[in-house]
Design brief:
The chain is an all-alpha fold. It has helices at 4-26, 35-40, 44-58, 65-81, 84-101.
């Protein structure tokens, strides 16, 4: 993956993404985003985080019990506290405790 062609592709995609975002959000656009669509942007970060985390947590057909328990602890902490920081802390703490005491 260290070929120049790969890195050129990464740079082109990154540049295109940056240009698109700057043109849409940073420019003096006359385009007005409807309020419901603007509110829906609040759900993008949690959706992306879930899309990245869930496959690692569930790893079917052989899920890691420590990772699964840490994911459940993080989800419960997120629901109860409504704070991302506490979800990360409780999930990480649960993972470390289970790994230390159970050795799973």
């Amino acid at each position: 993956m260290s070929s120049p062609r790969f890195w050129l592709g990464v740079l082109v995609v990154a540049g295109g993404t940056l240009f698109y975002r700057l043109a849409f959000m940073g420019g003096k656009s006359r385009l007005k985003i409807p309020a419901p669509l603007a509110r829906s942007f609040d759900y993008v970060p949690p959706a992306v985080l879930a899309a990245m985390a869930v496959p690692e947590i569930v790893r079917w057909p052989n899920p890691d019990p420590a990772v699964l328990a840490a994911g459940v602890a993080a989800a419960l902490a997120a629901v109860v506290t409504r704070r991302d920081f506490f979800a990360i802390v409780f999930g990480f703490a649960a993972y470390l405790i289970i790994r230390h005491f159970v050795g799973a």
